[in-house]
Design brief:
The complex is a heterodimer of chains A (about 250) and B (about 350). Chain A is of the alpha/beta class and about 250 residues long. Chain A contains six helices and six strands; from the N terminus they run H-H-H-H-H-E-H-E-E-E-E-E. Classes of the chains: A alpha/beta (about 250), B mainly alpha (about 350). Chains A and B meet through helix 1, helix 2, helix 3, helix 4 and helix 5 of A and helix 2, helix 3, helix 4, helix 11 and helix 14 of B.
């Protein structure tokens, strides 16, 4: 791949990352905090592309006036072009992945691959739930309070959580929200079983908002043998996928 | 991936992607034509083709396993782009603006002493492994002894403040994990530096010749270095990201459970897993914390091996330093890292 083509690839990659970080697309892949760095890095990629084209084109523009003796130089350039890295072609893949395919956020498939991840979640003490009835909390917050605090900091308050559903081993729906620590490669599911007025007949990956109360019922994740708390459902409704699919 | 374009004309020798063949210049007119159909044109044709095939392509990738693969692949790349770009910028500054004499003054003259200094220097650079490979390449190019540059390469992603803070957050009940990680990683970096002094041979490192870096116009040399390193290291990063995404999708976690109960097997399994998963060093502590069925020593091994040897690093090291280097350096680092981490774990945890 010669330098002009490399510049095009850099422009494509920089443009794809910039577009993803100016829309909410990047939230499917990385955490919100990375956004300023993504924008800065993509602008630098675009700058590198523009400067490469500038240094490549400038001699060519100058050459249009004087003639014959510069052709030797021209040939030399192409000698170098031969040694330019071939792996450069591969950089098209992530750019097109972002521009053309824009794969979805992690969902049921990834959640079924790994065990519920609460291992690092135990806290010495639990702050009171946020105000409001029902109290809006994250799936992870509910699971941590239910497993490690035995629901004491929840009491008989009503809570509202949002996640997507996956059919569990007993065909009952499990509410799942993925957590990222850096990017989707390290996404870990938090799983909460549903009891009571459980939603039935939902396809995997359907986003629902569930209102309910703490129950002492516990299940186990067959994958890592860790506890899966249950939520006694009072009501639920289907909702569109949230802006940030992770928590 | 570059399909040979058959134009159907009477001239099969004129494959557009190939560089102009040596004996060709007999006909200057035609060689002009092949010059015109260069990589840019192939790239444009490829893009048009892919955009035209967008619908069937998206349909193909909508199967859950393939969709997850694509998500993980894209997100590893998106996550790595800032680190790659800033690492490359720093490496271009080193390659172009920092004079050779600076390194002679900054590092102790004796290579055996330069190794610990370079390892300690890795502590202050908050970056991940994708950035440190091109930086180490530039350091060697600018006359830093390879042993010191390699110690820096290993230490920088493993023990910088961001990584250690992340480890402390991920293991709130076990602060000794932070100490264990810092100590073990520092020891591995220094041991590898000294091992290189004793056993390493300069000819294993094949840095590609880069006449453009000696360009008298500093700005031109700088941007040329940035372009080259992003494209080069980035291309190899793509290979590594694809490999990591495949492992992520193909290996379900339940396979690991069987290994967790055997102490020795657990350590080895976590070491291999660190290599295969290729998680960014700033995130691996959280993944290690979630693999709670494994002993702390096994998880410490995961944290020590991961930032130093993994699929995307091996791929990038092959690209920047050459195959002969990566084939020796990566396995040696793996063995040293596993042994040091296991011993540190037994003593500290």
């Amino acid at each position: 791949m010669n330098r002009q083509a490399q510049a095009c690839v850099l422009l494509l990659l920089g443009g794809a990352v910039l577009r993803a970080s100016l829309t909410d697309l990047y939230l499917r892949y990385v955490k919100e905090g990375l956004r300023p760095f993504l924008i800065a890095a993509s602008l630098l990629l675009i700058a590198a592309a523009v400067m490469t084209l500038w240094y490549e084109m400038r001699p060519a523009l100058r050459r249009t006036t004087p003639a014959a003796d510069e052709t030797h130089d021209d040939h030399d350039d192409h000698g170098h072009a031969h040694h330019e890295p071939r792996v450069a072609w591969l950089l098209i893949l992530p750019a097109l992945g972002l521009l053309l395919v824009a794969p979805p956020a992690l969902g049921a498939y990834a959640a079924n691959q790994s065990g519920t991840s609460l291992a690092a979640g135990g806290l010495p003490e639990y702050p009171p739930l946020p105000d409001g009835d029902p109290a809006d909390i994250s799936v992870y917050d509910y699971a941590v309070r239910a497993v490690f605090d035995k629901g004491q900091s929840i009491g008989d308050r009503r809570v509202r959580v949002t996640g997507f559903t996956v059919a569990g081993a007993d065909k009952q729906p499990v509410l799942i929200r993925m957590r990222l620590s850096c990017c989707a490669a390290d996404g870990q599911p938090t799983k909460v079983g549903l009891s009571g007025n459980t939603p039935a007949g939902l396809a995997d990956d359907t986003w629902i908002e569930v209102t309910g109360r703490y129950t002492t019922r516990m299940g186990r994740d067959p994958i890592n043998d860790f506890e899966i708390p249950y939520l006694e459902v009072e009501s639920w409704r289907q909702v569109p996928a949230p802006r940030d699919p992770y928590e | 991936m570059v399909a040979p374009e058959r134009t159907g004309t009477a001239d099969p020798g004129e494959a557009p992607a190939a560089p102009p063949p040596a004996p060709a210049p007999a006909e200057p007119h035609r060689s002009r034509l092949t010059d015109r159909i260069g990589s840019v044109e192939v790239l444009a044709a490829l893009l048009i083709l892919l955009i035209a095939l967008r619908e069937p392509l998206a349909g193909l990738l909508s199967a859950p396993s393939l969709a997850t693969w694509t998500t993980v692949f894209v997100s590893v790349m998106v996550q790595a782009v800032p680190f790659l770009v800033f690492g490359v910028l720093l490496s271009a500054v080193i390659a172009v603006f920092v004079p050779r004499s600076f390194w002679a003054r900054a590092l102790p003259r004796h290579p055996a002493l330069a190794v610990p200094v370079a390892s300690a220097a890795g502590v202050v650079l908050p970056g991940c492994e994708c950035g440190s490979v091109p930086i180490a390449g530039s350091l060697i190019r600018r006359g830093v002894t390879p042993a010191a540059a390699l110690a820096f390469l290993l230490a920088a992603p493993a023990i910088n403040p961001i990584v250690l803070t992340a480890t402390a957050v991920a293991f709130p009940a076990n602060p000794e994990m932070v100490l264990g990680r810092a100590v073990a990683s520092l020891i591995v970096a220094m041991v590898m530096g000294w091992l290189w002094l004793r056993l390493g041979r300069t000819e294993w490192i094949r840095l590609p010749r880069r006449p453009d870096l000696d360009d008298t116009r500093r700005a031109a040399a700088f941007w040329s270095a940035v372009r080259h390193d992003v494209v080069h290291a980035g291309g190899f990063l793509v290979i590594g990201a694809a490999a990591a995404a495949s492992i992520n999708v193909l290996v379900p976690e339940r396979w690991l459970r069987a290994l967790a109960d055997e102490p020795v097997l657990a350590v080895l399994a976590m070491a291999v897993l660190a290599v295969l998963l290729s998680i960014c060093s700033e995130a691996d502590a959280f993944v290690a914390a979630s693999l709670s069925q494994f002993s702390l020593t096994a998880r410490l091994t995961f944290l020590v091996v991961g930032p130093m040897v993994d699929l995307k690093l091996i791929s990038m090291q092959t690209g920047i330093f050459g195959r002969g280097f990566a084939a020796r350096f990566a396995p040696a680092t793996f063995v040293v890292a596993v042994v040091v981490a296991a011993v540190t774990g037994m003593v500290l945890l």
